[in-house]
Amino acid sequence: MSTNGTSQTYEKLTKRIREYQTLGACGSLLSWDEHTIMPQKGAEFRSEQLSLIAGMVHERSTAPEIGDLLGELQNSDLATRPEAPEAVNIREVSREFQKGRKLSKEFVEELTLVTSQGQHAWKKAREKKDFSLFLPYLEKVIALKIKQAETYGYEQDRYDALIDDYEPGATFESVGKVFAGFREELTPFLKAIQDSGKKPKREIIERHFPVGAQETFATGAAKAIGFDFKAGRLDVTTHPFCSGIGPGDTRITTRYNPNHFPDAFFGALHEAGHGIYEQGLDTSYFGLPMGQAVSLGIHESQSRLWENLVGRSKAFWKRFYPDAQRYFPQALSAVALDDFYWAVNDVRPSFIRVEADEVTYNLHIILRFEMERALINEEISAADIPAVWNEKFTSFFGITPPDDSLGCMQDVHWSAGLMGYFPTYALGNLYAAQFFAKALEDLPNMYENFAKGEFGELKKWLNENIHAHGQRYPAEKLVELVTGKPLSHAPEMKYLNEKYGPLYGI
Ligand SMILES: [Zn+2]
User: Fold this and answer.
1) Is 271 a catalytic residue?
2) Rounded average pLDDT over 140-166
């Protein structure tokens, strides 16, 4: 094909992709609305609207014409330089297209229905603390996920086919190897913290923090770290999320608890971190892989980095603590910075993942990772979950959940068919620590600048080294290119040691 013909074909392809991605963005906006301000009675019609759009997007993104255009482009000049934007777009769209085409419309519909019923049953069962109400639904979801993995196909482990939806290229073996080394160091580290007998004054952050002041304070901090409020909003929801609707429009959410300071504040910083990634993507590539996030793990690295490595650092609070004391005089005016800093960095085993600290959080994930892999490989069945969960939990944390709502039924993921998703949370922590260590090498005055309220150089570093690439490199390669080393648990352990060693005298 002539070069001219090739570029016309490429234009045709990108036009079609942008069209269905724009349609998808309309769905994202409806979904944001559903979770923030939609009146309760609108729920049923909203499901209809969303499923109509999802069906249209699926149809358009797997249309045979897309396959024809990709077929023409795959062997063209445009695909020869693998890192050129056009080649990246052709490669990644093909990958998604091939996967999407493997699933029949009937399968997608069945999965949507079963997971929707599954989530409903999960909610009820969790409230009643009765796993048996959830079991028949979960069995159906797992059977469909096994079918999905078999339809996708895999080389080594059935679970690999599912992780790939969230962390392209990752496998049970590659992730398992990193997690195993991590856990080996993490477990004795946690034990040393517990054995130290030291504990912060946790009640400091459980005092009364008026919601209005929390909102102003959190908004100010999100703005200070670089979330652009002219291209985004912060609203209230029950389960915080970030949605990159499209160019110039990124929505983040948080929730306020007047008697627990960390929920809203760190939730807002976390989602702002996701938002800064979305806002850092190249808008000229909207809808195309060059303008999209690499993987869920890399996305999570951006949120964890701002939430924890920045937002829970001493330097950050040197700048923000005087403000916090002004906003919450009743709770904090008589509290020293060091006591507050330790209270927001309290490490102790607890049952609930989303409330876990930086150290124990990773163990919550490793437990889920091992379990869901065993489920997908039919080494354990859905009925075994409560017993296996409690046994593992006790061996990981030394405490046993008193009921399944505080144990195996706490997360929505499995009911929603999100299997292979959990590992991306801990991968996010590991990527974050590895990126941050490299940023600190490149920007040696970073902490001093945090203490002055200056975060721009770190944001710029992330924009240039990570965000600007879109999906040019797979996650594994991106980490290596940016930091010079393959992914490892070593930077995270070093960070945890340096931070928590002095707090707990270990
Ligand atoms: Zn997140």
Assistant:
1) yes
2) 97
